[in-house]
Q: What sequence folds into this?
């Protein structure tokens, strides 16, 4: 017998076998459908409702970088959506332990999920349940979907929106803490430069009292008067002018050094002051780190369990099991009869 004919023969045998036992398969399918419909009902499986919110990260949540710093090569448009890097950073915050723990506390999820706080695995079970019901994923459009499943449609919506709201809180706590640390460093630098500048200003005033007011202008005028005295053969006047020039020469090098150093220190002080002002803005002012595209709202229909899918799967599974069982029984019987 050819292989094709053998396969056809086997297929025909299966069809004949099913037709002969159609009542059995029908009863099994009916019983499986009824039982699966009953046991997938709310009396046995608590239905869950899904709420979802969609957000985009911003280009930068730094107020100073976005609005106050001029000629900043890294400046970004605050009205634009963030790119891959900003999105990944926001996802990390959304998945952080701090947000998870606050959501668990605010919504009393231990009681809500009917967990026993005395159980030694309570924390692990809580985190597992949270992970099963809360999902934060990046979409192909570089947006972020926050999905929450819960037994209550209102709670699901409230949790999803609250998770998104907490992003800014913890984002700015981290940034504010960082800014305060940087402010301590800048304050030390500011005080150090201010003290150095004051010391140099005090020394310049002492040199001013010695007669050095504006070195370049004074040297220019005295040199001009000295030349006039020489042309007029005024030796007495020339000597007096030369003494003044020699007096300036005593402090000239120090005066020039102090003038140059003071200008440099003043520039550094202005830079530190600008950095302090920007950090103070970032520490005290806020700008949202996300654009909310869709807020979560209570679902009308449950998302879990999908009863029709459970019923269909159960019917097919029961029929397949029955078929295999009947086929085994038939094969065993044939073997016994042949023996």
A:
């Amino acid at each position: 017998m050819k292989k094709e004919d053998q396969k056809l023969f086997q297929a025909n045998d299966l069809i004949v076998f099913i037709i002969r036992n159609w009542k059995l398969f029908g009863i099994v399918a009916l019983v499986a459908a009824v039982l699966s419909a009953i046991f997938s009902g709310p009396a046995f499986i608590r239905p869950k409702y899904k709420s979802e919110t969609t957000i985009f990260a911003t280009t930068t949540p730094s107020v100073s970088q976005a609005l106050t710093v001029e000629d900043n090569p890294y400046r970004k448009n605050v009205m634009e959506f963030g790119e891959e890097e900003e999105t990944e950073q926001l996802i990390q915050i959304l998945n952080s332990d701090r947000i998870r723990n606050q959501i668990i506390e605010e919504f009393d999820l231990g009681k809500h999920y009917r967990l026993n706080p005395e159980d030694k695995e309570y924390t692990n079970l809580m985190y597992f349940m949270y992970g099963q019901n809360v999902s934060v994923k990046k979409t192909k459009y570089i947006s972020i979907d926050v999905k929450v499943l819960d037994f209550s449609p209102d709670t699901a919506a409230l949790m999803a929106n609250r998770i998104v709201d907490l992003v800014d809180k913890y984002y700015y706590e981290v940034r504010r803490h960082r800014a305060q640390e940087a402010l301590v460093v800048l304050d030390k630098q500011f005080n150090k430069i201010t003290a150095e500048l004051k010391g140099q200003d005090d020394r310049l005033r002492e040199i001013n009292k010695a007669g050095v007011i504006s070195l370049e202008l004074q040297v220019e005028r005295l040199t001009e008067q000295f030349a006039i005295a020489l042309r007029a053969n005024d030796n007495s006047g020339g000597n007096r002018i030369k003494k003044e020039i020699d007096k300036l020469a005593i402090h000239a090098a120090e005066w020039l050094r102090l003038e140059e150093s003071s200008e440099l220190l003043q520039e550094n002080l202005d830079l530190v002051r600008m950095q302090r002002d920007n950090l103070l803005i970032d520490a005290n002012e806020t700008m949202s780190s996300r654009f909310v595209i869709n807020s979560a709202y209570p679902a009308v229909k449950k998302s879990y369990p999908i009863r029709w899918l459970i019923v269909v799967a159960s019917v097919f599974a029961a029929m397949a099991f029955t078929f295999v069982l009947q086929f085994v029984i038939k094969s065993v019987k044939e073997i016994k009869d042949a023996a």
